[in-house]
Structure formats: structure tokens, C-alpha cells
Write a structure and sequence with these properties.
The protein has 271 residues and is α/β, with parallel strands linked by helices. 30% of the residues lie in helices and 18% in strands. The chain binds uridine-5'-diphosphate and manganese (II) ion.
């Protein structure tokens, strides 16, 4: 009886996974993704970049999309990429749009299982904020506008129902003009559109992780429950998942070791 109350089961093919990247990061960040989690979602994952790159076009089996957005790290360029990610998702018939950065590790089966608890026909904005209180900005007429946003660097997902409602302010390049209006980064613009303009709340999902959090505190027993991970480096200080496995010289960001911990049957994993 209770089974009938569950929304229809989600499969990997229901999910559109977009990864934001840039030409300067292809060689340094994409290979580790391609050898690890991309292998579990080759058909569903697309890379949004700012140049043509024959080498990686081949390595991703044609899954690199040149957004023709500028390759500089400014608001307009980043909102431009998000705008193309959004439009590309709308043009598919997928039920879920999940965005990640190119320094994320995505636990693909966990992501799919997690989305199964939600209906894509309802409005869902699933992700994790990186601040302790809602962002407050001063809008036109000097009124205060408060809203939450999911950090892009942790990854977030939108249901199709919500994405369709966002179209008047987010599709066909309108994501860029909305971003220009509030002059804030792409992930903040996403929160502004969803929480402020559409009045749909962010659902906080603790299993998404950006490198704004210390990765070493994620307990080993809980690693397989997490949806995303990240890494960063500040001089000689690495913020990485704490996991045994390959030598740090060979696997500095720990993604290979994490992958073998989660999926020990992979070819390159020791046994
Ligand atoms: N990025 C981009 N264009 C740039 C710089 C970065 O599209 O000029 C992307 C990058 O590929 C990554 C995300 O933006 O997916 C965040 O970049 P990064 O990790 O370097 O910076 P962070 O904001 O995390 O410090
Ligand atoms: Mn980053």
C-alpha cells in the first residue's frame, strides 16, 4: 500500500548532469573525472566549456559543449555558461537537471537513488548553501531582498517542473540578463530566480559538498551516502577527502582513492 505513495522510480537516464569547465582546466581537471565517475554516467553527463577541444571531444565521446561564452572568470561569462546549461537541459526530455563544477566528484548511483525520493513533476531546488543566513541584497526602490542559494561548487539539482516555470526569466539567454540585473554570480542568480522571483524554497541537502567545507570531516562510514565531493589546494595545504588508498603523490585530490573505495571492482583499483 505504501509503495503506491512513492513517486515513480528515478533511473540514471532521467538525469541530465552538467559540468561547468573552462579551457584552462581541461587538462588538469577533466582526466580524473573521465577515469572515475564519468564512467558511470557517460551518456548522461555533458561538459560545458568555452572552446573547441578535439582531444576532449573524443575522450568524452562528443559530450563537450562549446558555449561560446567568454573564458574569463567573471559574472557575465559564468552566467552565460549556466544559461547554456539550462537551455540544453530544457531541450532534452530529462526529469532532473543537476549542475556540478569540474572539481566535483559525483557519486552517481547515490545521486540517482536520492532523486528517487522526489517527484520531478513538483518544484524542487535541491542543494546546499555555503552561508549561515540567507543572502540579503538591496533591490530597486532600496527594499531588502533575502534569499537562499545553493552553492554551485557543491552541485545542485532542479526538477523539470521547476525548470519549466523558470523559463520566462531563465531560458534563451534571459538567465544572463537576470544575472546582470542583480550583478551576482551564477549560483546566486539561480537562487534569486527560484527563491525570490518564483518563491520556491531551496531544500537543503547535506550530502552535497563543496571545498568551502573541510572535506576531512566527512566520516569514512558515511562516504557512500554522500552525493558530491570536492577538493581545493592552498599552497601546500590540500582540502581533500580523508581516505586511504593510492599514494598522495599519485592521487593528490583523493578522487581515485575515493572512487576505489566506493566502487572497488573498477579496473584500476587494487584488489
Ligand atoms: N570556471 C569557468 N571559467 C573560469 C574559471 C572557472 O567556467 O574562468 C569554472 C571552473 O571550471 C569550475 C568553476 O567555474 O567549474 C569554479 O572554478 P574554480 O574551482 O576555479 O573556483 P572556485 O570558485 O571554486 O574557487
Ligand atoms: Mn572550485
Amino acid at each position: 500500500v505504501t509503495a503506491t505513495l512513492r513517486p515513480p522510480t528515478t533511473t540514471l537516464d532521467d538525469v541530465f548532469i552538467s559540468v561547468k569547465t573552462t579551457k584552462h582546466y581541461h587538462k588538469s581537471r577533466l582526466p580524473i573525472i573521465l577515469t572515475t565517475w564519468f564512467q558511470l554516467a557517460k551518456e548522461q553527463t555533458w561538459f560545458f566549456t568555452d572552446t573547441d577541444d578535439a582531444e576532449f571531444q573524443k575522450k568524452t565521446h562528443g559530450h563537450m559543449i562549446n558555449t561560446n561564452c567568454s573564458s574569463s572568470h567573471n559574472r557575465k561569462a559564468l552566467c552565460c555558461k549556466m544559461s547554456v546549461e539550462f537551455d540544453t537541459f530544457i531541450d532534452t526530455n530529462k526529469k532532473w537537471f543537476c549542475h556540478f563544477d569540474d572539481d566535483n566528484y559525483v557519486n552517481v548511483p547515490r545521486l540517482v537513488h536520492f532523486l528517487g525520493d522526489y517527484s520531478p513533476r513538483e518544484d524542487w531546488y535541491l542543494g546546499k548553501p555555503s552561508i549561515q543566513a540567507p543572502l540579503e541584497i538591496i533591490g530597486k526602490d532600496k527594499q531588502k531582498v533575502k534569499f537562499w542559494f545553493a552553492t554551485g561548487g557543491a552541485g545542485f539539482c532542479l526538477s523539470r517542473a521547476l525548470a519549466l516555470k523558470m523559463m520566462p526569466v531563465a531560458s534563451g539567454g534571459k538567465f544572463i540578463s537576470t544575472g546582470e540585473k542583480i550583478r551576482l554570480p551564477d549560483d546566486v542568480t539561480m537562487g534569486y530566480i527560484i527563491e525570490h522571483l518564483l518563491r520556491k524554497p531551496l531544500t537543503v541537502v547535506d550530502q552535497f559538498h563543496s571545498h568551502l567545507e573541510p572535506m576531512k570531516f566527512i566520516r569514512r562510514e558515511l562516504l557512500s551516502d554522500q552525493i558530491s565531493f570536492s577538493y581545493s589546494r592552498n599552497k601546500d595545504e590540500w582540502n581533500v577527502v580523508k581516505i586511504e588508498g593510492f599514494d598522495v603523490k599519485y592521487d593528490p585530490n583523493r578522487f581515485l582513492s575515493l572512487h576505489c573505495f566506493l566502487f572497488p571492482y573498477f579496473k584500476f583499483c587494487p584488489r
